[in-house]
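The data are quoted verbatim for reference:
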Amino acid sequence: MSGLSHHPVQAYLDDTAALLDTLKDDSGLRTLLTSAAEGVDEDGVDPTIARLHSLIAGFSDLKASLDENNARVEEEDVTEEKHDREMSEEHDRDMSEDDDEEGTFSVVIIGASASGLGVACALLQASPDLDVRILEKSDCVGSTFLSWPSFTTFISPSFYSNPFGPLDLNQITPSENGPQTFTTSQHPTGKEYAEYLQNLSKSKMFGDRCLESYITFGVDVSTIETANYGGGTAFNIATSSGTDYNARYVIYAGGEYSHPYSPPSLTKNLNASIHYSALSPDMWSSYAAECCSGSTIIIVGAGEAGYDAAFHVLDGEAVCSGEVILIDRNSGGGENNKVDDPSTTLSPRTRDRKIEILKSGKRIIVFKGCECISINKEGEEYLAQYRNEKGKDETVTSKLPVILATGFNVGKSEKCILKDISEFDESGRPVLSQDCDEVVKTKGLFVVGPMVKHEEVIFCFVYKFRCRFALVAGEILSRLTVDYHSIKTNEDGTVVVDEEGHEKLESVEKMCRNYQEKGMLITDLSCAVCGDVGSC
């Protein structure tokens, strides 16, 4: 908006105004013009001079009107700029007060467990006034870990190493104490780790607010739909309670434990098998008692979960006359694979536990390279049919339902809320961009946690997926800065931001440096892919 300040007629009017000013200020010129006009007509006035006076008067009035119009337009421009600035400041102001439990946010995180809290800390470290909301379906932080079997522990150890530099492998921030403060052993149980997360949510402060104050509990997200936002993508998040949330960016941190995978061919008889994650404490006790009395327990899957189940069943008594059979389609049985990445083979701790069990005289039998093809119940027995390495079908029986240690698959889960807005690979993990873990199919939607996978690198341990928190947070905060603080876009595509925008970007860079210095930021996955650190 610029009025007529640059219109071609303005120059002509300016010249006329200058002539008018000259006539007003130069009495000699006025006398000369008057004298030249005397006696020319009946009134003694030259008509040309009269027309000149009239024209000058008219242009004088018009210029005054234009000056008034331009002043009004300039005032409107200032008012509009002030309004835009106030809107930007209002957007950046924290909206997560008591009366903002529902509404519109810059970022919504789904899930208040390790990955959700971890990425929230990265966001708020760089931008403490960010309007971010964490939606958690349960009534507490870390509920997934509370649902773990009591005997299940972390594979990765926790040590009191923070004061000496190296971070605890299982902590989710580059500062504060790790889980070692809340555990009596070097491998935390699910309950102990949940206590660590709950303590962190209450004690971790951003300004005068604790991390827990950003969480809304009891909110089960039912759908995530895309919507238009200033020419870009935004999201409408519907919940089972009927409350809707809107967000410019969404981070899915829902994890995998809520999405157990049972192969359809093994669940045709629903009562013949049960997934590892669905066993109650009483059921585990029944399996242990039955095994110790001489029965055979059948487990499909010889990964970490399969062996964990076997160890618990056999640990019940000092003497156990039964046996545990693990049916594993991999020829190595999960233990002969020498790949460095523990995400694809048994961890050293699990191998050590197996050796201890076998030394005690208890029996674990692994059917390597065998594919379980059906599970049925006949009378009081449960039958697992499998095809061995030679292609021959055989059957083993048990007095209890077959345990399925067949992992988790978000993409194939009926409860998956990402089905319509993400593509998935064969393992059920969302297809993400490697540079910032953004869902390829839907711009503005990010994923953190054990679901992240790039090439052959699986981020299923805390010490792995925490290395992507700063990456995701930095990308989102940088985009928000451009959204609300850009001044112009250069021909080469680079964006110029205002002074406040520069300060925000510097804060993002500082956060990323902090995470990198603490070993919690990885962008180059080449070493993780080849497994040979330092050779290149």
